[in-house]
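quick one: glutathione bound model?
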Amino acid sequence: MKLFYAAASPFVRKCLVSAHELGLRERIELVPAAPHPVNRDRTVVASNPLGKIPTLITGEGAVLYDSRVICEYLDALAGGRLIPAHGPARWRVLVDQSLADGVMDAAVLVRYESAVRPENLRWNDWISGQLEKVTCGLAEFERGARGWTERVDAGTVAVGCALGYLDFRFASLGWREKCPDTARWFERFAKRESMVATRPPAG
Ligand SMILES: N[C@@H](CCC(=O)N[C@@H](CS)C(=O)NCC(=O)O)C(=O)O
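yep, here:
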């Protein structure tokens, strides 16, 4: 399998953490990509019209995106260990994943607005609106964190990657202060081999 990849992408990280947890990491070849909402990476666009990463080419040549589809594919390949097949646990895991993905989406959009968009075109209210999604998402994490102790699934993997991205790009947010249970949970989760092996580069 080939995965279009950039080390800084939290969505790519989510797929790689899943692959590690499922024992599939060695089967994935990483193909460096340079995703950009304006200067689109044409190599990625040739496979995925959205030009976004992660994009996975399976062993059979099928093109899969986005990260949720890729994680579900990997999970199915490994016999379904990160996404419960049915019942309330399934919906809990999937909603946790959606919430964490939403936090990552909002954070990535703030990053684009403040690091990619030309300064004279930036809109601070828009940045504030996206950051509020992040803080509301964090508050919801905090309500659930005490129940995550034993959970390693698509939901907690996504939450771990969202928090890792906030530490990577938004350290000044200081989210731990308002989210002590989440912080305690993340301190342990971030030490998992899958998380350590996929940590974004410094800076
Ligand atoms: N919903 C997508 C989001 C992926 C995404 O936003 N990836 C970013 C990199 S972190 C990207 O490729 N951006 C390029 C663009 O917006 O065109 C997923 O879950 O895979």
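The beta strands are 2-5, 29-32, 55-57, 63-64.
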